[in-house]
Amino acid sequence: MHELTLSALGALLRERRASSEELVRHFLARIAAHDPALNAFITVDGEKALAAAREADARLARGEAGPLTGIPLAHKDLFCAKGWRTTCGSRMLENFISPYDAHVVERFNAAGAVLVGKTNMDEFAMGSSNENSHFGPVRNPWDPARVPGGSSGGSAAAVAARLVPAATGTDTGGSIRQPAAFTGTCGIRPTYGAVSRYGMVAFASSLDQAGAFGKSAEDLALLMNAMAGFDERDSTSVERPPEDYGRELAQPLEGLRVGVPKEYFTDDLAPGVAACVREALAELERQGARLVEVSLPNQALAVPVYYVIAPAEASSNLSRFDGVRYGHRAADYADLNDLYRKSRAEGFGPEVRRRILVGTYVLSHGYYDAYYLQAQKVRRLIARDFAEAFRACDVIAGPVAPSVAFPLGAKTSDPVQMYLEDLYTIPVNLAGLPGLSVPCGFGEQGLSVGLQVIGDYFGEARMLRVAHRYQLATDWHRRAPPGFAS
Ligand code: GLN
């Protein structure tokens, strides 16, 4: 049952060959059996899940079911879900029970999906390995000595190990695509503004975007159909008519122009990863797509620019966690300043503190022009590079991450090495574009590699078509990590 895609599970439910309650019990049992070795979940609530499953079964019995009704799902633990603990992977929010639902959570609830648990993540979504979680690292189901990627590593590991059929994530600089690549799952980051950020704990608001993990491009289209749409509670939510993200899946690739950025194939890229990506591009070509070389000349500036802008926004967003209005409060303090200082020092982990310091610095008087304003200008140049490239192609394709999943602890002492993980994903966020990752083979140490497909603004349907046509000819996305297949 856990091998099935969302559409297959949906059919099973609608034809009454299984009930939602059975499905939910099956996945809860898998979580109980396997999660202790992976640590993909921060919270699992079987009682709430079973109650929701029974509601879904009633809806199925009435014949009112949609494609996701009755299907178990997990949310990254930065989506507020009413009555659920929402920790953001931080001690700061260790005991925060959300009094309301995020827009994304509302949407999935309305679709009848069954929330079974909240997944582990890097604290406040800052990280590329899931080692920054207050709740301990997540392990990669393909090799438990390795990281699953981050920051949505819990969601990625849970889907890879077949503990849930799908899960949500967020991608501020690569946090859906990179863990998808590291765990052999499919992950999509939509265009900025396509999915409401309402009820998502904010990290860097101009970059944050909710998306999802699943086992196929077709699954991602179903998830997008449920979660995308205008929401007036998010001022950057874009008002557009609803669309069917699966509408292009049946179209062949004949004549499609696939841009391959020359800056994506340099010495930074592990040879095993490059080989898989090149072979995937060749498959697209065999299907009639035309590969065209494009250039993103400011690509190398993306990581430095991101590490000015993202910490700047984070330092502002995280100021609300002061132990008074929100978050952990220190037990002993002398006065108000001491309360702030101690609460924040105790509540935030080292990476979050580092970002707050960097962010406060680049925004401070005298440095704002030199760093923050300059970074904003270069950000514009990076977006312009993509606009230029999309004049010559319909989608862009390349690697997701420079290497395969690395061992736990390998990069924890060197933040810059960790930051460079997002070399190929961050430009997409800076430009506000959509991107996805689908498995395209095994590279170094036999570990999974992702193919990144980048679309123009609101080009998700086309990206999904490329990924789907690729998956019709390959079976990488069906491979389960040994030990989690049955
Ligand atoms: N790894 C990047 C960071 O640490 C991106 C994280 C994300 O996309 N949330 O900021």
Kindly identify the CATH topology. Answer: Amidase signature (AS) enzymes
* Helix and strand pattern: HHEHEHEHEHEEHEHEHHHHEHHEEH
Dominant shape: globular
**CATH level-1 class:** Alpha Beta
Give me the oligomer status: single chain
The helix-and-strand class reads alpha/beta
Bound molecules: glutamine
Q: Please give the order of strands in the largest beta sheet.
A: 4-6-5-10-11-9-7-8
CATH superfamily assignment? Answer: Amidase signature (AS) domain
Tell me the span between the first and last alpha carbons: 9 Å
Helical content band: 25-40%
Poorly predicted spans: none
Q: How many extended strands?
A: 11
How many domain regions? 1
| Beta-strand percentage range | 5-15%
What is the architecture at the second tier of CATH? Alpha-Beta Complex
Taking all Cα atoms into account, the compactness measure Rg is: 21 Å
The major sheet is characterized as: 8 strands, mixed
Count of helix runs = 15
